[in-house]
Amino acid sequence: MSRIAALTSLLCIAFCITGSRNVFALEETGLQPYSVTWEGLEGSLIDLSFLLEKPAGKQGFITIRDGHFAKPDGQRIRFWGVNVSGRGCIPPKEHAPIIAERLSRWGVNCVRFHFFDRPAPNGIINASRDDTRELDPEQLDRLDYFVAQLKERGIYTDLNLNVARSYKPGDGVRDYEYLGFAKALTYFDSRLLELQREYARQLLTHRNPYTGHEYREEPAVALVELVNENSLIEAWMDGRLRGTNTRKNPGTWTDITASYAEDLTRLYNQWLQENVSQEVRQKIAKEAGVQEGQLIPRLSPDQFANASPERFHTEARFYMDVERQYFVAMRKFLREELGVKQLIIGNSDHGHGHSGYPIVVGTSLLDVVDGHVYWQHPSYIRDPQTGRNIGFRIPNTPMVLDPEHSTVVQLARTPVMGKPYTVSEVNHPFPNQYACEGIPILAAYAAFQDWDGIFWYTLAHSEVVGTEPRVGGHFDLAFDPVKMCQLPVGALAFLRGDVQPAKKMIARTYTLEQVRESIRLPKRSDLWPFFTPGFPQTLPLKHAVRVASFDGPATASFPEINENPLTSDTGELSWWLGKDKTGCVVVNSPRWQAVIGHCRGVSQGTDHLRLNVTNAFCAITLASVDEKPIADAERLLLTACSQVGNRGQRWNADKTSLEDWGQSPTVIEPVTGTLTLMGVVAKRVSVQPLDAQGRPIGGPVAADKGDGGWLIPLGKVVTTWYNVNVERN
């Protein structure tokens, strides 16, 4: 038994004693004001900008070596990032340095620019025209200045191309009012393909006057993404290629209109003529009930199960081939016509309720493979007349109770050997009461899986400087005091590699027939999210996992895993499930340690952490700031986090939705109790509570020395984090 497994066995005893009273026991009473503000950081003790090389791109363009991101000199680099969305991409110029400085000091080294292909003021497209074919000079100037400020502080940029562009009469796009974001259509419609290339040319050949480079030649731009959560084959799986939409402004996820469905059917029949034998075409036509010379109709999802293998696989080949042709053509256009030097991402594997392998077959042709995931993404309630969101629901349960479907496991299905893997969107969306678990768990396991980039979605959809401290959306981090304080400690784990990579890599191979057949596997079955029969879903919590090939041989079965706690092959990570709906993740590495989950009653944690907290659910992390192991460090960063809300926030009866989002300021449930810092030989240990900007609250408190270690009181001051100074003998 590893050391961490032994320690976690003690956790099991403590949890079983405390029993079921810990389950969902977070109290709404006692939440205290504690707010993130976005003024300057004078007096802040948080500065992890030493993790970043300045300026970004100092050596040249990010490249790939041994399947991972690397600087030109070959040194490995990972990205710990955030998204900015819409107006958040184009802050006023006087605000850009403030935001860039905060991100740099919080350890963020890459920003993904998302959702800005929109008309001003929400994006960079000129709103005064009757088309979307011209960039707005003022908005573009804001973007340029922000990118330059980020670059100066060592922060790279990821530019997204086609995300949320909607069309106007002058664009020459048929049915433009009925397309929403035109998902799926962007892969095959000639006009939409032309407009994508035009936009890419305008943006990527634009010269940023503050850096002196066109974007295609800017080494601080590390990544360029083609489309976002947009897949033709996924649209087929989801029934969005039937041609039934007749509603204007239908929203994001919508069926295509009849005219485009007819175009797609004609394209399919043309493809059949060029790629399938006459004998096979005749068989498919007979099964479809059409005569010789008639167009063969395409399948809808309700027909998948009863379709013959020949008909089903042929049509699946068609959609996958169209996606492949799109990625190859766009890569050629960017590389050869525009001279783009950045690494290219095609799309993300994001719909984990069904197989993602048909998508990854295409995206893995490009430089980087990417994934998205959200723990319990809100399910929106829509007005049947207008289609607008009028409410939401979430299960509101902790991830530590469901390791098989955790963000770690869902994301782990996508990485491909020989390709960098990024997670360009991830979050525990607000108002989940257990969201404090999200950042530390993924930071640790992403390092263990040896992934290449994590981008939390999203810093904000709007301006943040001078804005009231209130969490106003499901995904915004900027005013969430727990997530914002966890970003720096997560940067230490991931960028610095404080959690070591897995010792063993488990590779899977698929035949293309397996990939296509996975489309027909039942959604949300016991096979999700891997959709690979014979593959234990918790294997990514034990070893690293990747896809080795989509050319076969067929995937074999793997040994079952029946462990509790489920301990990584490095011995540093352990995931425990109790008998009474309790769970906990423990991280025990020399420089980074954590206890995350149902913590009440726990008397033993890691080599250096022993907890005695009153909170039913919380996340405690301890990290060395000065590069030394915790046992020898002179400065430590301690975070102690639980739930977050807004003042006056009101849940519905079963805490699955909000009846009132509340007002400013944000409030937190302080973590209270004591923590014993063990195994640290010192003359004195002092603990400084911090405000949400990292500034001292009052003076430092001396920890008491006891037989077991240094006793640190928690919750005497309302805070989420502490600076710990260790004075050595």
Structure notes:
The protein has 729 residues and is α/β, with parallel strands linked by helices. The chain has three domains: 3-33 and 566-727, no CATH class; 49-251 and 325-495, TIM Barrel, CATH 3.20.20.80; 506-549, no CATH class. The chain is 23% helix and 23% strand. The chain has a nine-stranded antiparallel sheet with strand order 18-19-20-21-23-24-34-30-31, sandwiched between helices. The protein has an eight-stranded parallel beta barrel with strand order 4-5-6-9-10-11-14-15, surrounded by six helices. Strands 22-29-33-32 form a four-stranded antiparallel sheet, with no helix packed on it. Helix 8 (309-338) packs parallel to helix 9 and helix 11 runs parallel beside helix 12 (481-495).
Number of domains: 3
Side-by-side strand order of the widest sheet = 18-19-20-21-23-24-34-30-31
Total helices: the number is 13
Terminal Cα span: 34 Å
Query: CATH architecture of the largest domain, please?
Result: Alpha-Beta Barrel
CATH class of the largest domain: Alpha Beta
| Mean of residue pLDDT values | 94
Write a concise synopsis of the structure shown:
The protein is built from 13 helices and 34 strands.
